[in-house]
Amino acid sequence: MRRLSLTLRMIGLAAAAVAVALAGSLLLQRWLLAWQAALVAWLVVALLLALAVRRLLAPARALFRALAGTVASYRDGDFSFGIAWQSGGELGELVAAHNALGHALREQRLALVQRELLLDTMVQNTPVAMVLVDPARRVVLGNLAARRMLGEGRRLEGRGIDDLLAATPAALQEAFARGGDGMFSLGSDDDEDIYHLSRRSFRLNGRVHELILLRQLTAELRRQEVQTWKKVIRVISHELNNSLAPIASLAHSGAELLRRGQHERLPAALTTIEERARHLEGFIRDYARFAKLPAPRLAPVEWSRFIEQLRAQVVFTADLSPADGIARFDAAQLEQTLINLLKNAHESGSPADEVRLSVRRLADGWRIEVLDRGSGMNEAVLANALLPFYSTKRNGTGLGLALAREIAEAHGGRIALLNREGGGLCVSLLLPA
């Protein structure tokens, strides 16, 4: 009995345990179902929110894509795009600024294109032949004048400049062979054209290019030649009249004095006639010397002895360094030049002891300076003083400084004028060694 009772009790406990387990399982299943339902609801809500956010952000995303597209177009040089945006706010301000940038770029591009068209028109139609050559010696650009001169009217782009020059006249080839700038003539004596060749190198896109300019100077030089001859004729006529008129008048007066027997006044009249005749003779001699200046005969000359010879003709203070220097020049021509310059210094109103001649040895030649403490020159006179027939003197021929320039350049040197600090003028000549 006792065992049976124990067995029944155990069965009851087992049944109760089973019942409890079944009840727990049902609760767990309900809880799981409830959790799954809640999770599904949250997922649905999240999906709906994502769809709503996507729909709300769709215009902004489209705007960003449009902005990226227009920026890419700007990078490629196309500024014709704009963006339409109805809303305001910060995105509206961004779109407005972007559109304003595009408008400014379009205006700048249009102005640049117009300037390029204008520049191209000017380059193509200028009478100056222009040729741009790349490092490979091939023509990058040739205007219409260059085509006519070098290519018989055909395009020059892509052709070798050396091949083009090989078909040109020998004078043009020699001008290029000399290098640098220069002048040359084409044609015969009766039909001669004068050209100026100019060559400049510069970097374009990181590579060295050469710009060649060929300018015809015939008409301009002929105009200047005519103007020069007119001025020469005016100067000569004026000088001849100034001398011949008093000579003729005094000759007539002398004849009258002879007729009247007033011989005591004849010497004064004859002296004046002689002075005017000698002045006219010197005037014509100066012109002849300027027009027929011979090539300098270079020879070694001791500066100390040369300066002493100058002292015998005009007063000045000398400054020679080194004292035993020897230079090569035409002594007669340079002597005439320095005498004229030293006399000009005395005539400038400078004290005699302030007229100075300075001779200095340079690394590649000699610097000769004539200095005074006169009134100097204004800017207009400085700019024209070395030109032939230009003079500020009442009876000047305008040939003294022009002749000095001619002699200096014939020696391979140059001359310059500049005002000194404290007053006065410095005439500087540079002669090669």
TrEMBL record:
Enzyme class: transferase
SUPFAM superfamilies hit by this protein: ATPase domain of HSP90 chaperone/DNA topoisomerase II/histidine kinase, Homodimeric domain of signal transducing histidine kinase, PYP-like sensor domain (PAS domain)
Cellular component, GO annotation: membrane
Transmembrane residue ranges: 33-53
Enzyme Commission number(s) from the entry: 2.7.13.3
GO molecular function: ATP binding; phosphorelay response regulator activity; phosphorelay sensor kinase activity; protein kinase activator activity
Annotated keywords: ATP-binding, Kinase, Membrane, Nucleotide-binding, Transferase, Transmembrane, Transmembrane helix, Two-component regulatory system
Major location category of this protein: membrane
CDD domains: HATPase (cd00075)
UniProt entry tagged with the keyword Transmembrane: yes
Protein name in the entry: histidine kinase
Record organism: Thermomonas haemolytica
